[in-house]
Fold this sequence. Notes:
Blueprint: H1 9-24, E1 31-33, E2 50-53, E3 57-64, H2 72-93, E4 97-104, E5 107-117, E6 120-130, H3 138-141, H4 144-155
Parallel strand pairs: 3-4
Antiparallel strand pairs: 1-2, 2-3, 4-5, 5-6
Keywords: Membrane, Transmembrane, Transmembrane helix
Amino acid sequence: MLNLDKIGEVELQTTYYNAILSEIIANRNIALRWANKSSSEEESDIQPDAFISTLIQHDFGEVKPGNSSTTKNFVCTDILRLGISSKRAIYKWHLSGCLSFMINGFYISFFVVRKQNKHLYTMTEIGAMAVASSPSELHSFASLKNLNMLSHIGHCL
C-alpha cells in the first residue's frame, strides 16, 4: 500500500498525472507545463501548479499530495485560485471558457469556467475520478466510464 505522507506534489505530477493529462490536451499547438509559479502574462500572487497554454495561457491546474498535511481548507483555497486564474484569463484573452483541474492525491476533478454575462462567471465540475496508484488498480481506472469522461474532457478544450 502506498504511503501518501511520503509522496509530494512533484512525484504525483510526474509519475501519475503527466502522461494522462498530456494526452487529454494533446495538440501540437498546446503545451502542459508544471511551472508552480505565476505566468509572465499574469501579474498576480496566484501561482497554479500547472499551465495549459498555446501562445496564451488558458487553462490551469493545482496539485495537493492528498496526505495528512492536505486539509479541506487548502483544497478549497486552491479551487478558488483556479477560478480566479480562469476568470482572469477569460477576461484578458476574450476566451469563451477555461478548463481547470484539481489533483488531490489519487483523485482528480475537472472544472470549466465560463463567462455568462458581463459580471457573472460560473465554475462547473465536469468530471472527477480516482486514478490508479499501482498497476494492480489499473483495471478499475481504465473503465469505459472513465475513458469516456476523459475523452469528453479532452473535447472541452
